[in-house]
């Protein structure tokens, strides 16, 4: 049973429940920002997949996944990021922000960092 929820904060400041994986979606300067908190594993990766997929599959979709609250990500999360990158191609992009060192190391080992750009902050990811 998944302990994960997605909260769309377009009209509210509410957050998802603290247990499991919390995903908050918002829009900043026309860019979808997905703020993720908790561990991404095979139990919770489906929620992340749904959250980073473009809301409307139109060319040029842009999404920043704020992973500053993610201390652990297994191969399920890596697969979700790859699928998310592909869903945004060719005209849009998926960028990662605030990736913790432990997760960044995993992304580097599997060779994902040349494919999906990582930034220190959401603002940096949006402005680049």
Automatic annotation (TrEMBL):
<dbReference type="InterPro" id="IPR036513">
    <property type="entry name" value="STAS_dom_sf"/>
</dbReference>
<comment type="similarity">
    <text>Belongs to the anti-sigma-factor antagonist family.</text>
</comment>
<dbReference type="InterPro" id="IPR002645">
    <property type="entry name" value="STAS_dom"/>
</dbReference>
<dbReference type="InterPro" id="IPR003658">
    <property type="entry name" value="Anti-sigma_ant"/>
</dbReference>
<protein>
    <recommendedName>
        <fullName>Anti-sigma factor antagonist</fullName>
    </recommendedName>
</protein>
<feature type="domain" description="STAS">
    <location>
        <begin position="21"/>
        <end position="128"/>
    </location>
</feature>
<dbReference type="Pfam" id="PF01740">
    <property type="entry name" value="STAS"/>
</dbReference>
């Amino acid at each position: 049973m998944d302990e994960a929820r997605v909260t769309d904060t377009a009209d509210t400041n509410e957050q998802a429940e603290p247990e499991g994986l919390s995903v908050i979606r918002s829009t900043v300067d026309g860019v979808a920002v997905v703020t993720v908190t908790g561990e991404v594993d095979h139990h919770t990766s489906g929620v992340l997949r749904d959250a980073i997929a473009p809301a409307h599959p139109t060319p040029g979709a842009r999404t920043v996944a704020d992973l500053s609250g993610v201390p652990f990500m297994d191969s399920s999360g890596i697969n979700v990021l790859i699928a998310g990158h592909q869903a945004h191609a060719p005209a849009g992009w998926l960028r990662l922000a605030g990736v913790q060192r432990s997760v960044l190391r995993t992304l580097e080992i599997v060779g994902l960092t040349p494919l999906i750009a990582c930034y220190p902050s959401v603002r940096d990811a949006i402005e680049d």
